Amino acid sequence: MSRLQVVSGKGGTGKTTVAAALALALATEGKRTLLVEVEGRQGIAQLFETEALPYEERKIAVASGGGEVFALAIDAERALLDYLQMFYKLGTAGRALKKLGAIDFATTIAPGVRDVLLTGKACEAVRRKAKGRYVYDYVVLDAPPTGRITRFLNVNDEVAGLARFGPIYNQAQAVMRVLKSAGTAVHLVTLLEEMPVQETADGVAELRAADLPVGKVIVNMVRPHLLDEGAVRSAAGDRADIAKALTAAGVSGSAKLVTPLLQQAADHAQRVELEREQRAALNGLDLASYELPLLSEGVDLAGIYQLSKELRKQGAAS
Q: Which GO terms describe its molecular function (predicted)?
């Protein structure tokens, strides 16, 4: 089981929701999981119905069996100040640089440095030990969308043009040793729709080309199949029988209901066929997958626990 699990996905696929559910699923039987976000959206705080996360690790949930989920919202400026203090002992000077706008300038003009700082903080949490054991059994990173996940993780290439030696270069090397190890898995979240599936396929290809460890495809918001195409074809030829059946069931105005019911059935069958095509495309990626249901009531804290239970059933914590 990979100790660093990175979650990415096209915008709108629910990657933050999946990352939160995965963190809960992993924090079973007394395990400790750190859930990390790097995009500054405070999505984790919203999902767990808590106040905005500060730049510190904070317990936000208790999982099945007494496990604990901690969360950290990484801020690039604060991470750079930590970095300056760690390598250059520039605590006070670093704060002065922040006031002068130099920190913002550095993280904007050199996005590769920013990504080293963000991924570096997560990798440090993976390696951290206390009293001879890891502080966290797992770290789940809610990463940027699929379109830029490879660039975000492949910090060694991003920094190569900025520094070929020194602390920044060494930090990038240390980060890449974690990210490219067997202890890391990069999961991609998708929907059974053409654009998210295509972006997932592109993301998998880019990750593999960069020699980054691809984990699983997580198909989110899966809707139940109520009718197949054969059932629709059968119903289409028996309009009178359908009307009689509705009348027998005590439905008034049954004759007027036949056409809209058949249209709904046809729409459902078309969606099922489109989803079948997208599943076939995902199967072509030769990756294991998890599937999570669409929550009809929307995603709230109870929904996160429900999704974590689904992930455990499918082996996410084993």
A: ATP binding; ATP hydrolysis activity
Q: Which one, of 109, 45, 55, 43, lies nearest residue 79 by Cα? A: 55
Which tokens hold the place of 167?
């602390």
Buried b (16+ CB within 10 A) or exposed e, 30-53: ebbbbbbbbeeeebbbebbebeeb
The answer to whether the beta carbons of residues 5 and 142 sit under 8 Å apart is no
Q: Encode pLDDT of 104-161 as tens digits.
A: 545 454 556 778 888 888 999 999 999 999 999 999 999 999 999 999 998 766 665 5
Quote the distance between the C-alpha of residue 70 and its chain's center: 16
Q: Helices H, strands E: what count in the chain?
A: 14, 10
Task: Using alpha carbons, list the distances in angstroms from residue 151 to 2, 60, 99, 307.
Answer: 21, 30, 29, 29
DSSP-based helix, strand, coil % in the chain, nearest 5? 55, 15, 30
Contact 195, 10 (CB under 8 A): yes
Contact 15, 8 (CB under 8 A): yes
